[in-house]
């Protein structure tokens, strides 16, 4: 988020041959205020939060074995930072790169040009940077959800919310929150279940009353076959 430019106090002072009224409110031309670079550990934390809330991510593995990546006619051996096992594609190899390190990355040119980089086994390779991980409204939505991770959800509220979603398939956030009768904040209770991986919330949109919520597949075998 950009910092608003501040008025230079010197422009508010009397100047010889000038009236105060002619100077008041003048904003001198100044260079754009640049946001400080985001350190890589903070970007990794953002990446892990997004992966935890993305229902398409089944498993996440750090530091997978090096693979041969194809870029045009070139073949480059590269060890990605993470590997995602996903439901919507065979797999995804990811590097989380800070802006300061992007210029030295071997696939920077492909990243800037939007050229696809694919491993020999068909898995895609992508670079996640501050420009992608901190895009809005996803960043704000992810932070709002993760802020509810310590919200206590009673057994009764948990069962009522999940049963409501079993009955309706996909429910609005405001409707699911109404099922949490023991919680001080029903919305926070629903979002806490999203952090646990029990429900899925669309993180590409802002949190609204009509935000769709649905059940996620259990991360472990269901002994009752539900």
Would you kindly provide a brief summary of this structure?
With 226 residues, this protein is an alpha+beta fold.
Largest sheet: 7 strands, mixed
What are the low-pLDDT stretches, counting only 5+ consecutive residues below 50?
Answer: 1-26
- Tally of strands: 10
Shape: globular
Tally of separate domains = 2
Strand order of the largest sheet: 1-4-5-7-6-2-3
Number of helices: 9
Indicate the proportion of strand residues.
Answer: 15-25%
Structural class call reads: alpha+beta
C-alpha Rg (nearest Å): 24 Å
| Terminus-to-terminus distance | 45 Å
Mean pLDDT: 86
User: Which series of helices and strands comes N to C?
Assistant: HHEEEEEHHEEHHHEHHEE
Molecular structure report:
- It is a single chain.
- With 226 residues, this protein is of the alpha+beta class.
- The chain has 2 domains: 40-134, no CATH class; 137-215, Arc Repressor Mutant, subunit A.
- Helix content is 32%, strand content 19%.
- The chain has 9 helices and 10 strands.
- It has helices at 20-23, 40-53, 99-102, 108-113, 130-133, 138-146, 155-168, 173-178, 186-196, and strands at 57-62, 67-71, 74-78, 82-86, 92-96, 117-119, 124-128, 170-172, 199-201, 212-215.
- The longest helix has 14 residues, at 40-53.
- The chain is globular, with a radius of gyration of 24 Å.
- The model is unreliable at 1-26 (pLDDT under 50).
């Amino acid at each position: 988020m950009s910092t608003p430019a501040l008025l230079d106090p010197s422009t508010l002072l009397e100047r010889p041959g000038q009236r105060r009224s002619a100077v008041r409110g003048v904003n001198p031309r100044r260079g754009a205020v640049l946001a400080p670079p985001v350190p890589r550990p903070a970007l990794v934390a953002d990446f892990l939060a997004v992966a935890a809330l993305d229902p398409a991510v089944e498993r996440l593995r750090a530091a997978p074995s090096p693979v041969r990546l194809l870029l045009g006619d070139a073949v480059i051996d590269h060890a990605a930072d993470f590997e995602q096992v996903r439901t919507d594609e065979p797999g995804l190899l990811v590097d989380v790169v800070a802006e300061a390190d992007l210029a030295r990355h071997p696939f920077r040119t492909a990243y800037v040009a939007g050229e696809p980089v694919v491993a020999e086994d068909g898995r895609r390779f992508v670079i996640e940077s501050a420009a992608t991980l901190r895009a809005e409204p996803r960043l704000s939505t992810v932070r709002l959800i993760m802020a509810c991770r310590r919200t206590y959800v009673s057994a009764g509220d948990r069962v009522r919310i999940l049963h409501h979603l079993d009955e309706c398939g996909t429910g609005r956030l405001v409707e699911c929150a109404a099922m949490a009768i023991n919680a001080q904040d029903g919305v926070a209770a629903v979002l806490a279940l999203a952090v646990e991986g029990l429900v899925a919330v669309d993180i590409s949109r802002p949190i609204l009353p009509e935000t769709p919520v649905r059940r996620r597949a259990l991360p472990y075998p269901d002994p009752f076959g539900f």
